[in-house]
């Protein structure tokens, strides 16, 4: 019957289009996740010490993206040839990929949520400039914080008052009168020396960096997490529709 | 008998400007008094700062001479000391000096134990009260009032910071719930299709045929039944009539 044939052709066309979109989104997801993994803005020591696995979500995303691309090609072939076997394989593998991508999205969203300022504050106070029993990870944290404060002209997590409100490993080796906050919080000249040391110690504006570094940390981390989580979420919504359509198509194919 | 020192109405105070380091755990800043001692000061006089624990300020007695000045290292026992010996000219109206004095900023004199007036860091959060004392050759000439008690900062341990967020962000809830429901729908669809297939298989098992086709998109190619060609001999007229 001509009408039923037309419906079949329309459904096939929609499914092919859906799979093309999935393939392209898979490539985009892989590229995005490779970018995030390779370009963590030097914050990786802080995140690793906070036992945060936001990178795991990106790694899963790389492989899921490639799988989506391969499966979309399989899907296109299966739909055009109306082959039950191919489409069955496609549906099962797609469900597995769906599950992995779901895990990646939820991991990225949850781990992003757990990176509050308090996490970084506690880590910084307990490990920055820790001298006794310092291990490799503590030295990495100190170097990361020094670079962070130098490049972003910031101090502490919420501000220099972090060093005043809490005792810290830094405070054990640097007395409060000479170092109310680390020297890196002062405005430095070209040689790396404070422009006005007394002004910096007193907190005269213009001689010290008064804003906290949390924005400089959370900016890249946010982009990373939401890029993986929300983009993955969008892909999954689209994949859900395509999968339902494919299942409907498959159930109507005769042997 | 020496004349008692003149009581000036000036009250020392922490500068009102927003300086983050004006009070730390071991130091504090004071606004530099201007024009306060000009009426009483000679060129050779010195202005000292007397620092006492707030509850010991009443027991402070002005020293008779420079030799009687209580030193910094006796602060824990005597409960007061004097420091910041400066020429009176530094506090005159026309002096070009920084507007803020920092008490407790000299760690070198504490570590090296010099006998000079030492502006060393304060050992405890206090509270402290301060007053300025104008000392001449023959003893104190003028004094300001005692300041209000100045309490230094007390730092708490970072163990009190709770790193766990108290509430999950709404984004996590949205993503998790929607994805979970999508996954559940897909799983149900797959299981439903499988179940229907098994059910149909079991129901039609005695017929021996697999008849699960509720809609077929591809029909088998059945050649159409062609009409029988007419028997030779009939070539005209209505069919069947020869």
Q: Which CATH class of the domain at 6-150 in chain B applies here?
A: Mainly Beta
- Number of domain units of chain A: 2
Distinct helical segment count of chain A = 10
Number of strands of chain A: 0
Helix count of chain B, per DSSP? Answer: 3
Helical proportion of chain A, percent range: over 70%
SSE run of chain A: HHHHHHHHHH
Gyration radius of chain A (Cα, Å) is 26 Å
Instruction: State the total count of DSSP E strands of chain B.
Output: 7
Oligomerization category of the chains in this entry: heterodimer
Name the helicity range of chain B: 10-25%
CATH architecture of the domain at 6-150 in chain B: Sandwich
| Arithmetic mean of pLDDT of chain B | 80
Biggest sheet details of chain A = none
What is the fold named in CATH at topology level of the domain at 6-150 in chain B?
Answer: Immunoglobulin-like
Biggest interface and residues each: A-B, 58 and 53 residues
Query: What's the shape of chain B?
Result: rod-shaped
- Give the neighbour order of strands across the main sheet of chain B: 1-7-6-3-4
By secondary-structure content and strand pairing, the structural class of chain B works out as: alpha+beta
